[in-house]
Amino acid sequence: MPVPWFLLSLALGRSPMVLSLEKLMGPQDTARCSPGLSCHLWDGDVLCLPGSIVSAPGPVLVPTRLQTELVLRCHQETDCDLCVRVAIHLAVHGHWKEPKDEAKFGRAADPELEEPVNAFLQAQVVLSFQAYPTARCVLLEVQVPAALVQPGQSVGSVVFDCFEAALGAEVRLWSYTQPRYQKELNLTQQLPALPWLSVSADGDDVHLVLDVSEEQHFGLSLYWNQIQGPTKPWWHKNLTGPRNITLNHTDLFPCLCIQVWPLEPDSVRTSICPFTEDPRAHRNLWRAARLRLLPPRGWQLNAPCSLLAEATLCWQAPGGGPCQSLVPPLSWANVTVNKTLELPLLNAHPNLCVQVSSWEKLQLQQCLWADSLGALKDDMLLVETRGPQDNRSLCALEPSGCTPLLSRASTRAARLGEELLQDLQSGQCLQLWEDDLRALWACPMDKYVHQRWALVWLACLLLASVLFLLFLFKKDHVKAAARARAALLLYSAEDSGFERLVGALASALCQLPLRVAVDLWSRRELSAQGPLAWFHAQRRQTLQEGGVVVLLFSPGAVALCHEWLQDGASASAPHGPHDAFAASLSCVLPDFLQGRAPGRYVGAYFDGLLHSEAVPALFRSVPVFSLPSQLPDFLGTLQGPGAPRPGRLGQRAKQVSRALQPALDQVLKAPGNPGGPGDGTRDGT
């Protein structure tokens, strides 16, 4: 990560202006020695194989101390990486066994030298570096003149430039000679981390916190770092002091990077890209990506960042279904975004489409120039495979696969195999693509569709005849349904169990020739209009159509009636947001008081929940039934003059009773129910 010196100074100390990191231009590693020594850096890295410790044949050079320094390796003036410079201090280890024996001295240095005064001591020094995820080993050859060889004394140092590392990384260094004469020299160092910038998430927001001194003036830029092309600036501002910048999660992309630099002449800029692995950023990238097809045979994938995706050609049939992949495949490795690419086609066809997938998931699809080529065509795509000696085979691409022509399969292509082969040979098919081994052809199917119109019309006539017979068969049933009487159920919402009981009754009544209205099925209209307005509208419609209003009495409904009769309008306020019963009393009671209720209202209560005497006397001017014991009479009254014969009515009553009984049993068994077992409210009639 490129890092400017002033940010490193923030990480290393409190005085940003004291520290200035040295810049190294170019990517090459180098080595240099202290005066009196000569050194050479081997090209490329070597294997890190320390081997076993061996006895020194005489004086040898060994590393005695490792020293590090942070520098900047710059590829360009404003593109620098943090780098670790290593200095290896060397000393002479061992003594001369035979000081006057030049041969022994030569074995430690150079056997061809005959005079000790011209001899030198040579060593191969290995320097190993580890900083996750990087591991390297380099080899340095060092020579020291014999005149400087003093056992046990330092002879100088060799400096290696340099190992690249990231801020905050733990660096481990080892150094030894080949062969190894002593234990490896090692050093572990923690590189400073930058406390000046942190990225944190808070729900849908992302916070960029810049922790610098109040006097520090710096520039901040957000940009899209595109590998394929120049960077695109998105946001830039000059700031002073600590800052907290908020980004919405929809602004995140994998290539969104942050660049910071001091507002000083020739300052170095640093950039970090913290969202490369963020799942939200990758989802946003695909949402922003657009696939464009450019006539005559071009295509382009537009996106803010580079994408690892696979692009393929496919054939889209007009009947829907998945787009079937074709050869030839398009380039998939790092599809170049924002660049026009060419499709390897001889001719365009509206059924040809381009798909872009990532990790085997379809992300984008666009068919070829629908505006200019028109809608999808009902053409058959033939795949030609060419073999040796001019042998070729043909198959037709269908949803079930590629069907060989002239086969016995029960598909459209197999049935029309001979005709399609003749069309291909007579030049009626359009060649879309070819190479040495394969070719693609699109053959029109319009004429074969026209030949089958007679069968289609015959099938339509047959279907119309069947529908007409069904209409005659269902005529009586339709008339009966047209005469179905409307019924409006009113009840007081006791609890959820009682509401389920009312819902079971309403559903069972709907199976009869009755059109049932109940507030349980109209909660949205009830909330929008209010209980009173909803009841007025339903009551007016029901009575205008000759229907009946059913009052379902329960302990709560009886209590509301007594309150209203005693206190008048003050008791008529709704008891809940959906309590149509409480809202309806202001209209229902006047009908009973003025004698307009008979023929328009019917009362009912459930066995075990209420005594018949509990129903207020005012409401006994209309028939009041106990359910389910008096279901046949109740159903006959609801259906009015159009009620079926008694036998048929009894069967329907049994059906309603079977549907009603489980819900009623559940209400009766509920603890604390005023009409529950042992409460003395079961109707004795």
Automatic annotation (TrEMBL):
Cellular component aspect of the GO annotation: plasma membrane
Region called Disordered, residue ranges: 637-685
Single GO MF descriptor: interleukin-17 receptor activity
Transmembrane domains' residue ranges: 453-473
Main location class: membrane
Membrane-topology descriptor: Single-pass type I membrane protein
Localisation: Cell membrane
Record-level GO BP terms: inflammatory response
Signal peptide: 1-20
Keywords noted in UniProt: Cell membrane, Disulfide bond, Glycoprotein, Inflammatory response, Membrane, Receptor, Signal, Transmembrane, Transmembrane helix
Record-annotated SEFIR domain positions: 484-636
InterPro entries recorded: IL-17_rcpt-like (IPR039465), IL-17_rcpt_C/E_N (IPR027841), SEFIR_dom (IPR013568)
UniProt subunit comment: Homodimer; disulfide-linked. Heterodimer with IL17RA. Heterodimerization with IL17RA is independent of the cytoplasmic tail. Associates with non-glycosylated IL17RA constitutively. Binding of IL17A and IL17F induces association with glycosylated IL17RA. Forms complexes with 2:1 binding stoichiometry: two receptor chains for one interleukin molecule. IL17A homodimer preferentially drives the formation of IL17RA-IL17RC heterodimeric receptor complex, whereas IL17F homodimer forms predominantly complexes with IL17RC homodimer.
Name the UniProt record assigns to this protein: Interleukin-17 receptor C
Encoding gene (name): IL17RC
